[in-house]
Amino acid sequence: VAPFRILHQTPDSQVYWSIACGSSREEITEHWDWLEHNVMKTLSVFDSNEDITSFVQGKIRGLIAEEGKGSFVKEEDPEKFREGLMKFEKCFGLPEQEKLVTYYSCSYWKGRVPCQGWLYLSTNFLSFYSFLLGAEIKLIISWDEISKLEKTSNVILTESIHVCSRGEDHYFSMFLHISETFLLMEQLANYAVRRLFDKETFENDLVLHDPLQITKRGLESRAHSEQFSAFFRLPKEETLKEVHECFLWVPFSHYNTHGKMCISENYICFASQDGSLCSVIIPLREVIGVDKGDPANRGVSISTKGKTAFRFTEVRDFEQLVAKLRMKCNATSSPQHINTEVAASSTSDSPKDFDAGPSKMGQRDNSKTVGTEALMTVYHPQDAENLDSKMLKEKMKEQSWNILFVERGHGVSMFRTKKTRDLVVRGIPEALRGELWLLFSGAVNVMASNPGYYTELVEKSFGTCTLATDEIERDLRRSLPEHPAFQSDTGISALRRVLTAYAYRNPQIGYCQAMNILTSVLLLYAKEEEAFWLLVAVCERMLPDYFNRRIIGALVDQAVFEELIRVHLPQLTDHMSDMTFFSSVSLSWFLTLFISVLPIESAVNVVDCFFYDGIKAILQLGLAVLEYNMEKLLTCKDDAEAVTVLNRFFDSVTNKDSPLPPAVQQGSSLSDTKSDHPKVDITDLIRESNERYGDIQYEDVESMRCRNRLYVIQTLEATTKQNVLRVVSQDVKFSPGDLEELYELFKKEHFLSCYWNVNSPVLQHHDASLPYLEQYRIDCQQFRVLCHLLSPWSHCANRDSLALWTFRLMDESSDCLINFKQFAYTMYNGSFTDKLKLLFKLHIPPAFTEVESLSPSKGADLSKEELIHFSQLSGKLQNVRLLGKGKVDIQAYLKQWQDELLKKEENIKDLPRMNQSQFIQFSKTLYNLFHGDPEEELLYRAIAVVTSLLLKMEEVGRRLQSPTSPVKGPVAITEVPAEIPRKGQEESSSEQTEGSRAQSLRGNHEWSFAFEQILASLLNEPAFVRFFEKPHDIKVKIESAKNLQLKARIRV
Q1: Among 530, 515, 436, which Cα is nearest to 479's?
Q2: CB contact at 8 A, 686 and 628
Q3: Is the alpha carbon torsion for 758, 762, 764, 770 positive or negative?
Q4: d(CA 1042, CA 1052)
Q5: β partners of residue 7
Q6: Which of 109, 259, 438, 628 could make an SS bond with 171 (beta carbons 3.0 to 4.6 A apart)?
Q7: Residue range 693-738, pLDDT digits in tens
Q8: Is 315 helix (H, G, I), strand (E, B) or coil?
Q9: Could you give the CA distance from residue 975 to residue 980 in angstroms, rounded to a whole number?
């Protein structure tokens, strides 16, 4: 028995419940503090002592189970996991393919009362189950429906996780390890969003491509690896293997800095945690020796080719670490060493190879010759003999950097400290800019491991003609047109090669506006191949998802920027009634790194800071710009006035230390003409942004990015929905609310087919860059499921055939997919004539096809394979547009929209006639529709009367057309109505009779009916009119479908 215990007693009860125990006063005090912060504050919401006791019991049992589950977390006790998996499957009834990742004990807040239960995290759903005091709570939320996921706290809830889904807020609290839980929820939500909404960046992600392979440990390690590679600017493929707390000896400061050593496959990195801002990146390709240090200090010494030795001390298991690192270096040093040499030689030798080329290939080869000099060195060479005051300052800057290199090392393994950042803030010297951009961005590492890649890419992409290359050609001469480098073929050709090569390398991005402006600046200071790798670093690592069709990354960072404005500039947010102003005005800041709004000589200083500090530098500068103009912005009456204030400010920004000649500087002439506006030096502005907002942490920015990504994507989805509903509402007669619910069901059906199918064809066809209506489409199988749930004719015996014919009718492009507009049209929401016209069109080509199940035992039901087979019988697929990766045919879409505009209401006289076999099937369908109706007997008699009348009308019409030709077999024709089965007859025998009768009739002249004839005949039968004009409550169908959609998918 533990010497210290905490007990719980209900007043007026003799029973004491053991809540916690400890072997020391310190241990039991820790338990007491946890109870005070996490449980006791919550007890005030309960009305009775019994409720408090029940809640505390459930909470403590859950914590005990959670602690016991710790072994499962380490995958050492699969029995616990198997038990949790069985509960998960039993409670929620999801398909077997739904993979449970992990589960936690927690409380779910229903109003102001917490319900103790279990939170289950699976690949596609967040689920919660609680059963206490006879009350069951079951909650299932799809990850793709979550718009907000954050950690919050308030008076009652010390720390909780807030989930917002489809406008509803859900709160979960009292986790044993809330940070771990939140990290996994964040990973799963972002995984689902990327997989379902943003396939451009997901397709090449082999790790998460298969939902069945996702594990808790895998998600956690992936999150840590992503943070590691992003922080140190390493290739995305790097995986964090080990983390060691240790000290690193800083020779130039003569002290040990405390931090973490992080080791991946090809890099050893260190980041201090004591505020010294010291970091080091050591590629294993540079390591020449790993030795043990002083055993008393548990030291590890690493020597590099740059004659620098890094001494780490207080490393746990340092002997094992030395052995591992030696093994890594022996395995990788020789090939990596060769790669480095090849990379160095490729940049110098490749031009010689191409110099010999023109004699064989003529002038055409000039566009493939890779440039070996930065354009700035060609167009603005420095005059070493005639140094003016600005050039002297430039030389002093260079000297400062050279001193830094001597002290802290030169190259990829240099010490990066606060002094490094201070020098970057002052502006990198022109001569060192390209080299340091390459170093700080991490592009130097990718380039070293891919020697000759760019030259090969230029060869492959030369002469290609795509939508991207067309756009590149259009924008080439819009890229810094005032700079001499881009007024000549040399600069234009280099820009074309880099952009075309990148579009060839990454067709998911291809080319996006703003890439030309950024690449132009890169080419000024970096060699052509270096500029290419810098562009890769920016587009694929530093500004993820910026340069795709929906610029999601830029929108996410704008949302982060708005959040920071609310925190740091509250008076500005109070004045601005609409925060979207900041989004509209700052988009170009993020997309072009301020290059498009600042003079070039000032913008390059911003790019310096961006390559060193990442997006944090742009956010800080944006805040500084708004604060600098705060007073003027607060007096603005509208957005246009505020934009004018900011534009004048940017025109006044100068760089007094820029060594560029006045002819090139964009700010010099402008500042002279606008002398009334005070000049602002870019160095002072950047320094002020660092001083005022430098406390913004990288980790906080990444957390805000992750949080706002869900919100941005759901906002884009809401915009898509609004546009689709606006278009569709003009053609259907549903109420706005019902139409929105139908859209959600339609979209949900699209996603349900993607949840458990890695290679879902529907997911492959989803492309957010397509017109709104075409973004979500469903196939015949999905359409059948929705028809069974929503159609008022779903009770019909041949409902599968009806669904198939309806789908074929709507599939106008014959690509076996239909959009929401086509789906909504099929929900039979019209007058008697509209419904009858739809039924008529279902029984004539192109919709109608003979359907016969291969399994007679199933009756009229069709298997999935049969359904897909019959839906594809429309001949050749007419793919007028290539979806996904292919080039979008803009002209085809313009023609389609033009046709839509010119489309007139369909005239019933334009409908083709229905032949005899189609009419027999039409009659059978009517018979099936009427089955079970209260007026069933009347309707059956009406069918017989109408069919008899129609056949007599046809007989008379044929006699009038050819009076000399007697019609043979009138008795046979008039007997056809008798083939329609009476109530109680076997349908199979009627089908045989009808089939043989139709066979005999083919020997005679074909007879057929026009729609007007059928309409006129049916209008004479009141029972028909009452049946088709009977109102159907679509709301009831929708509510039922929402509850049954997931179960229907499971059955399928």
Answers
A1: 515
A2: no
A3: negative
A4: 16
A5: 18
A6: 109
A7: 988 988 889 889 988 999 998 898 899 999 999 999 888 888 899 9
A8: coil
A9: 10
